[in-house]
Amino acid sequence: MASPRGTTFRFGSRRVSVPPSRSLLSALMGSHLPILQRSIRYHRPRAPFCGVGQCTNCLIRVNGIPNVRACRYVPSDGDFVETENSWPSPAVDLLSALDVLLPGGIDTLRGFRRPAWATPLYHRVVRRLSGYGRLADPGQGSPPPVGSRHDTDVAVIGLGVAGAAALRTLQEHGANALGIERGSVEPLPGTPVLPGTAAAFLPPPVPGPAHPWRIVCVERGSRGVQVRARAVVVATGGYDAGLWFSGSDRPGVMTAEGALSMTGNGGRGAFRKAVVFGGGPRAADLLDRWGALIEAVVAPGAVSPEVSEKASALEVPLYPRTLLLAARGRRRVRAALLRSRAEGTEFAVEADAIILAHRRLPHPQLYFQAGAKMEWRHSAAAYFPTLREGTETSLPGLFASGEGAGFLGPTAVEASGVAAARQAMGMPAPAMDEGSRVDATAPNEIEGYYRELLTGRRVGGKWVICPCEDVLLSEVEEAHALGYRGIEVLKRYTGVGSGLCQGRYCLPDTLLLLARLEQRPAPEVGYITQRPPVTPWSLSAFATLPEDGEPEGPG
Amino acid sequence: MMPPSRERYHTVVVGAGIVGLFTAYHLARAGVGPVLVVDRGFLSGGASGRNGGGVRQQWETAATVRLARESVDAYRRFGGEFGYNIWFRQGGYLFLAESPNELERLRRVRTVVEREGLRSRELTRSEIPRYANGLELDGVVGGTFLQSDGTLYPFPAIWGLYETVRSLGVEVLLGAEATGVSASQGKVRGLHLATGPVATDAVVNAAGGWSSEFSRRCGLAPSNTPTRHEILATEPLKPFLDPMVVRLSDGLYFSQTMRGEIVGGLTLSHPPGTAPGMPSSARFLRAMSRALTQLVPRLATLGILRAWSGFYDDTPDGLPLIGEDPRLIGFFQANGFGGHGFMLAPASTRRVAQAVLGQPSDLDPALFGPGRFLGPPRERPVEGAQLG
Ligand SMILES: Cc1cc2nc3c(=O)[nH]c(=O)nc-3n(C[C@H](O)[C@H](O)[C@H](O)COP(=O)(O)OP(=O)(O)OC[C@H]3O[C@@H](n4cnc5c(N)ncnc54)[C@H](O)[C@@H]3O)c2cc1C
Ligand SMILES: Cc1cc2nc3c(=O)[nH]c(=O)nc-3n(C[C@H](O)[C@H](O)[C@H](O)COP(=O)(O)OP(=O)(O)OC[C@H]3O[C@@H](n4cnc5c(N)ncnc54)[C@H](O)[C@@H]3O)c2cc1C
Ligand code: FES
Question: In chain B, helix, strand, coil percent, each to 5?
Answer without folding.
Answer: 30, 25, 40
